[in-house]
Amino acid sequence: MNPVPLRKGDAIAVVAASGPASRARVEKGIGVLLDGGHPVELGRSVFAKRGFLAGTDDARAADLDAAIRRDDLPGIFFARGGWGAARLLDRVDLARLRARPRVLLGYSDLTALFMALQKPGDPYPYRYGPVVSELGEPRSYEPRSLREALYLERPRIDHDFGRGRVLRPGSAQGVLVGGTLTLLNTLLGTRFDFSWDGCILFWEDLNEPPYRIDRMLQQLRLAGKLKNLAGMIVGKLAGCGAKPPTAGWPIREIVLEAAAGTSYPIVMDFPCGHIPRKRTLLMGVPADLRTSARSLTLRV
Hints:
This protein is α/β, with parallel strands linked by helices. It folds into two domains: 12-153, 3-Layer(aba) Sandwich (Rossmann fold); 157-299, 3-Layer(bba) Sandwich (Glucose Oxidase, domain 1), CATH 3.50.30. It has nine helices and 14 strands. The strands form two sheets. The protein has an eight-stranded mixed sheet with strand order 6-14-13-8-9-10-11-7. The mean pLDDT is 97.
């Protein structure tokens, strides 16, 4: 499935699939979209609050389904992350969304929705980048990579590793998939899981101490998810250091132990995730990872 570009003048639906969003921050983000020439349609539950959710599951699902049914809304951008998108997967029309690809933008908790749309041999493109509540805060994201991922002005998108480290050298080709590690684990054993064999897996997370990172990676290992990857890219792991009195462990060693017995290249600290100046990654597309050139090339 080829990625579709966002075009100047395209209308964008802003919906809340996860946690409640700050009205001021979302309105600033909407202002950025309007200034960019994009009409915005706001979901009814964007500013709702039900505990840690943006309103009830039914209300959030209704907003997302309404956007999916609208053929005149090429873009669906998400207000914020948090938690809650996985609760909607059996409530929204994923088949219809797959039948007509949209420009989906979000990260973190939206991993659940993005990965549920994937099928082996027929990946669904998505943009793993800032949520709408961050668009009005310039330091939250890297503008060039967001523009490149949204508008697809060139047949390829090139990313360098920034200050990323090569844990294991090599080159790899495969579809780039992934997201937040916690949500990747959440889908294991559900009907929304799929084979990652031959894929380049990207993952990152926030505020998870090393023992939890290890626990999640070992769960993926035991489930066979890491065995047949083409490559692995670990994003920035903000706040993932040890929290006393629990002992720590170098995460690079945790990653290498989880991938023991494999030979694919592994890169760590790629500048994407829950960080300032985050890169936006076009996902669900063929990718070339070359550690010798310190480059990740995404084929549009």
